[in-house]
Amino acid sequence: MNPIILSILNLIRGQFGDVVSISNFDSTVILDKLIELQNSVGTLSNHDGPIAPAHVILLAAGVVIFLGVAGEAFFKKTGIPDVAFLMILGVIIGPVFGLIQPEAVISVVPYFAALALIIIMFDGGLNLDIKHVVKTVHFSITLAILGFILSVVIITLAAHFALGWLWLESILLGSIVGGSSSAIVFGLVRNIKISDDAKSMLSFESAVTDILATIIAFILFEAVLSGHFDLQTLEETLGRAIVVGLVLGFGVGIPWMYVSTKLGNAQHAYMLTLGVLFVLFFLANSFGESGALTALVFGLMIGNKRHLSKILKFKLPKIEMDDPTHNQLTFLVRSFFFVFVGLMASFGQIEYMVFGILATIAIYFGRSFIGKITLTKRFSKLDKAVTNSMIPRGLAAAVLATYPITLGLPNAEAYSQMVFFIILSSVIITTIGLGKSKKIPPPESVEGGFVKPTDDSDEGSVKEVQTETSNNFQKESIEGGFVKPTDDSQRE
């Protein structure tokens, strides 16, 4: 039921009824229409189960797909991510109109979260260049660890002193929202014209923070329940998860590249790879890893087939990064995931909304400080601006925020309320930051930035560079025996 809409209709109906009783004109037809509209809204909101009828859900799914496609096109034109629009749509479908009730959302959280996690992390690995990852891994790890620690400290202090929470509960909240969302970052960097090193750095950083948030949060769940926190347990669990993720990712990824060469012409080669990915997720969870690192490394192996083929000396699987099946599946998972985040929104006390917004602003300024002390001169001004703005929270935070309710922790409902506003405000801040980055001129290469040259001088310089590069290439090609002369003067 949506009490707000029904109350408005009741008010309109009551006021209109008074007018009818006072005036002499016949308005029974209009009054009947108002009653019918009220009953229709009541029917949508008061359906028997926690989920609306199938045809209504299919309508909502169609709107989600339409907004997902339109949002991607809108992002390519303006640089503004579609994440906020999809989250707001989820709020409209869920909390506003009540087509899907909170209990139905919470019941499917583990299943949808697992699917979204492995598909998005696998897609991220496919689109990472292993050479750039190796070149920027120290920047990624530094950004991830310092950024995660600073975010946890900010949220912990704010929750303890502003909300009066216990230290352990405050640290748990900080851990839930401590890292940037790989689900959002992977999609953003793919369509931003920053350097390849910056793309790899931001993508790998977000994957690391997702893993950190998941592992540390689950350790803290047990700590809050038991009232005791053990640092040694944290170190052992984190180390085991990293080892398991790397061993499974490399140990299965490399052999599967060889096996799949025998299945190169198979009709369902991609689906077989997807099946292996699901089995890897099961094994990772069985050995104490969330499956995120395993899926990332497995995708990294398959996505870098050309580079690895020179080392491993055999043909690699015919699973391209632009495989249409994989692209469509990733699009569906990402689009429905952000709507899913909106469905989980809970609007309660006003101080939780204020807390989420102010905490996100503090995280943004902390991120800017971390970026200044971490990034060297090898990164352009545009790379640094985009890095400082990349603070979106998403999949890990949204899923982890539901566990306090299922575990019966203190202040359980407050987690989901604050986390939703942190996610939404972080996405908005990231959107604004990327919009400002469009004003920064590109670095050395025209292909390295948002802005293309528009004046004649810039265009002239670009043409000169291209002409010089082309002439040098032709000269080197002829001297190296790659290109045969074609005109008469060259033959002579």
TrEMBL record:
GO molecular function: antiporter activity
Cellular component annotations (GO), alphabetically ordered: plasma membrane
InterPro entries: Cation/H_exchanger_TM, Na+/solute_symporter_sf
Pfam families, alphabetized: Na_H_Exchanger
Alphabetical keyword list: Antiport, Cell membrane, Ion transport, Membrane, Transmembrane, Transmembrane helix, Transport
Classification via PANTHER family: NA(+)/H(+) ANTIPORTER 1, NA(+)_H(+) ANTIPORTER 2-RELATED
Protein name from the UniProt record: Transporter, CPA2 family
Record lineage: Archaea, Nitrososphaerota, Nitrososphaeria, Nitrosopumilales, Nitrosopumilaceae
